[in-house]
C-alpha cells in the first residue's frame, strides 16, 4: 500500500506497538522509542501498512500509560518528543503510517488540571471534572454506587470532603465533556499530533466520555448513565472536522466496546469516526456457525454506514489468542476470566495460524498485536507479586500476561529485548518463538504472516461471498478467483474445485484440509 493512498485505513494491515514491551535500547528493562526505531525493519519486512502506538506520553504509569499527564510530550522512560518525530519520519520513509493513542475519557491525577482542581474548591479547573458532594448526613457515602470498568468503586473522596469520579482507577479522574474547555483542549491535541505527521488517532474508551449529569444508578431497564450516551457523537463530529481539515488521508479509529451492532455502527457514520475495533470478532468462539454469524453481522453493520470492517484477534487488554484457542472455552470477555484453566498450546497455535489467514482475507482492515506474528502465548506464570496491572487488584484479572516483552534473539531471556531484566518475565519456552529463530523457517508463524501479508497485497480481493460447503467449515471467495477455506471441524474435508493452492496455515492431507487449518486457493 502506498502512502499516497488517501483511504489507506479501509484495508490496511495495522500493527499495534506496546512501547514498554517492543524493544529496549537503553538497557533499563523497559522498551523505548530508540528500540522501536532499531527494530523498525521487522515491521517493514513483515509488510504492515501502519503502526498503532499505545500511549507514550508522560505518565505516573498507574495504568501503564493510560493515565496521561501531558498529551504533548513523551514520557522520559520512552524517550523524547524529538525521537518520536524521528520515528514518524522513519516509518514514513519505510512506507509505514503512524497512529497515536489518545485517551479522552480521563487524565492522570498528576495532570496540571487535576492538581489545580484539588488545590482549591474555587479553581475553574474544578469544572473540568466530576466533583460532587457525597450522600448521607455528613457526605460520607459515595454519590453513586456505580462500578468501575476495572471493577471496584468509581468515587474517591478529597480532603475537602467532596468526591470525584473515576471509571477506572483513582489516579485516572474522568473529564467533564460537557465543558467547552475540555472539548477545545482535545481538538488542540489532535492538531498537535497531526501537525507532526501522524496519520491517525486511536481513541481509547470512545463510548464512555459523556455522563448523565443527574447521576442515576445503573438499572437494567433504564438508559445507562455513562455508556454510549447520544451526545458523544457530537464530540466525534467535531473531531472529524479537525481530521478532515488535514486532508482525506487522516483517520480516526475508535475503541468501541458495544454489544449492539447498530449502536456500534453509529460511531462510523460518514461524519464521525473512520473505523472502530471489532470486538465481536475478537471474542467469538472457534465455532463455524458463531464465526459466520459474527462475520455477517460485522459486514452488514459496516455496509449500512459505508465504513470498513476491522478484524482483531488480540490486543494489549485481552488474553492472547494462541492461549484462548487452546482452551475448551475459546471466547473472551472480561466477565469470563480465563486465567489458569487448561490450555493446549499446540492446538491453540494451529488455530491461531488458521485465524491469521481468516482475518487477513476478510474485507476491511486487519490489526496485528505485537508478538502475534511470532505465535506468542499468554504468560500465565507471572507471580502475582510481580503484576503491575491495576485491574488485578480491582477485578482479579491481570492483563500483564499479554504484555510480556518481545523475544528477538538468543536462547534464553531476555531474548535480545534488553540487556537488563525485563519489566515482566518472559517464558523460557519462547526460545523457539524469537524473531531470529523463525526468520527463514517456512513453517514458522512469522513466515506465515509475511507470506500472507505479501499475498494480500498482490491479490485482487474484491466482493465477498460465502461458498456453500460443509456447515463445519468457513469458506468464502473474494471476487471470482480467490478463496479462503477454514476447517473448524474435527475431521479432514475435501477442498473445493480450484486451480492452485496459494497458501496454507498447515500441511494438507493430500487434497484434503485437516482440522483447524486454513487455505487460500486460486479458484477454478
- The poorly predicted ranges are none
- As an assembly, this protein is single chain
The CATH architecture of the largest domain is Alpha-Beta Barrel
Mean pLDDT: 95
* Count of helical stretches: 15
CATH-defined topology of the largest domain: TIM Barrel
Quickly list its features:
524 residues; alpha/beta; TIM Barrel; Oligo-1,6-glucosidase, domain 2; Immunoglobulin-like; 8-stranded parallel β-sheet; 5-stranded antiparallel β-sheet; 15 helices; 27% helix; 14% strand
Describe the structure.
With 524 residues, this protein is α/β, with parallel strands linked by helices. It folds into 3 domains: 8-105 and 182-449, Glycosidases (TIM Barrel); 112-165, Oligo-1,6-glucosidase, Domain 2 (Oligo-1,6-glucosidase, domain 2, Alpha-Beta Complex), CATH 3.90.400.10; 462-523, Immunoglobulin-like, CATH 2.60.40.1180. Helices cover 27% and strands 14% of the residues. It is built from 15 helices and 18 strands. It has helices spanning 19-22, 33-38, 40-46, 81-93, 112-119, 180-195, 232-244, 261-266, 279-282, 288-305, 321-324, 345-361, 390-395, 435-438, 445-458, and strands spanning 13-17, 50-53, 97-102, 131-132, 155-157, 163-165, 200-203, 251-254, 275-276, 310-312, 365-369, 464-466, 473-478, 482-487, 493-494, 498-504, 512-513, 517-523. The strands form 4 sheets. It has an 8-stranded parallel sheet. It has a 5-stranded antiparallel sheet with strand order 12-13-14-18-16. Strands 4-6-5 form a 3-stranded antiparallel sheet, with no helix packed on it. Helix 4 (81-93) links the parallel strand 2 (50-53) and strand 3. Helix 6 (180-195) runs parallel beside helix 7 and helix 12 packs parallel to helix 15. The radius of gyration is 23 Å and the shape is globular. The model has no long low-confidence stretch (mean pLDDT 95).
Amino acid at each position: 500500500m502506498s502512502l499516497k493512498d488517501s483511504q489507506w485505513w479501509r484495508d490496511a494491515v495495522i500493527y499495534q506497538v506496546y512501547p514498554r514491551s517492543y524493544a529496549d535500547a537503553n538497557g533499563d528493562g523497559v522498551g523505548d522509542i530508540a528500540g522501536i526505531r532499531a527494530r523498525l525493519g521487522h515491521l517493514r519486512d513483515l509488510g504492515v501498512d501502519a503502526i498503532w502506538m499505545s500511549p507514550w506520553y508522560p505518565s505516573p504509569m498507574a495504568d501503564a500509560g493510560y493515565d496521561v499527564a501531558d498529551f504533548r510530550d513523551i514520557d522520559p522512560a520512552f524517550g523524547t518528543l524529538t525521537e518520536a518525530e524521528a520515528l514518524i519520519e522513519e516509518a514514513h520513509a519505510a512506507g509505514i503510517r503512524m497512529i497515536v493513542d489518545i485517551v479522552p475519557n480521563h487524565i492522570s491525577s498528576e495532570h496540571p488540571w487535576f492538581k489545580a482542581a484539588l488545590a482549591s474548591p474555587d479553581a475553574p479547573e474544578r469544572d473540568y471534572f466530576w466533583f460532587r458532594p457525597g450522600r448521607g448526613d455528613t457526605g460520607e457515602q459515595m454519590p453513586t454506587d456505580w462500578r468501575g470498568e476495572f471493577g471496584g468503586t468509581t468515587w474517591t473522596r478529597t480532603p475537602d470532603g467532596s468526591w470525584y469520579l473515576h471509571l477506572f482507577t483513582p489516579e485516572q479522574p474522568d473529564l467533564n465533556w460537557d465543558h467547552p474547555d475540555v472539548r477545545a483542549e482535545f481538538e488542540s491535541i489532535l492538531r498537535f499530533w497531526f501537525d507532526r505527521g501522524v496519520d491517525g488517532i486511536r481513541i481509547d474508551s470512545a463510548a464512555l466520555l459523556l455522563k448523565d449529569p443527574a447521576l442515576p444508578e445503573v438499572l437494567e431497564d433504564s438508559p445507562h448513565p455513562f455508556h454510549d450516551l447520544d451526545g458523544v457523537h457530537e464530540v466525534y463530529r467535531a473531531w472529524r472536522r479537525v481530521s478532515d481539515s488535514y486532508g482525506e488521508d487522516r483517520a480516526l479509529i475508535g475503541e468501541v466496546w458495544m454489544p449492539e451492532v447498530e449502536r456500534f455502527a453509529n460511531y462510523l457514520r460518514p461524519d464521525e469516526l473512520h473505523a472502530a475495533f471489532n470486538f465481536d470478532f475478537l471474542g467469538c468462539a472457534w465455532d463455524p456457525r458463531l464465526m459466520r454469524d459474527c462475520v455477517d453481522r460485522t459486514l452488514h453493520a459496516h455496509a449500512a454506514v459505508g465504513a470498513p470492517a476491522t478484524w482483531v484477534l488480540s490486543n494489549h487488554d485481552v488474553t492472547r489468542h494462541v492461549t484462548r484457542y487452546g482452551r475448551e472455552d475459546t471466547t473472551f470477555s472480561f466477565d469470563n476470566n480465563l486465567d489458569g484453566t487448561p490450555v493446549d498450546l499446540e492446538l491453540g497455535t494451529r488455530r491461531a495460524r488458521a485465524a491469521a489467514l481468516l482475518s487477513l482475507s476478510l474485507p476491511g482492515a486487519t490489526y496485528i498485536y505485537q508478538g502475534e506474528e511470532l505465535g506468542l502465548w499468554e504468560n500465565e506464570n507471572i507471580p502475582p507479586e510481580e503484576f503491575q496491572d491495576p485491574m488485578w487488584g480491582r477485578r482479579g484479572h491481570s492483563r500483564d500476561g499479554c504484555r510480556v516483552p518481545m523475544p528477538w534473539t538468543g536462547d534464553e531471556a531476555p531474548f535480545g529485548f534488553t540487556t537488563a531484566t525485563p519489566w515482566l518475565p518472559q517464558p523460557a519456552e519462547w526460545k523457539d518463538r524469537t524473531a531470529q529463530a523463525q526468520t527463514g523457517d517456512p513453517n514458522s508463524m512469522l513466515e506465515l504472516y509475511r507470506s500472507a501479508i505479501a499475498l494480500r497485497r498482490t491479490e485482487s480481493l474484491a466482493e465477498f461471498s460465502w461458498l456453500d460447503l460443509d456447515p463445519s467449515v468457513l469458506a468464502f471467495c473474494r471476487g471470482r478467483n480467490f478463496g479462503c477455506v477454514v476447517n473448524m471441524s474435527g475431521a479432514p474435508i475435501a477442498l473445493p474445485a480450484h486451480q492452485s493452492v496459494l497458501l496454507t496455515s498447515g500441511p494438507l492431507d493430500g487434497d484434503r484440509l485437516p482440522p483447524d487449518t486454513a487455505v487460500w486457493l486460486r479458484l477454478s
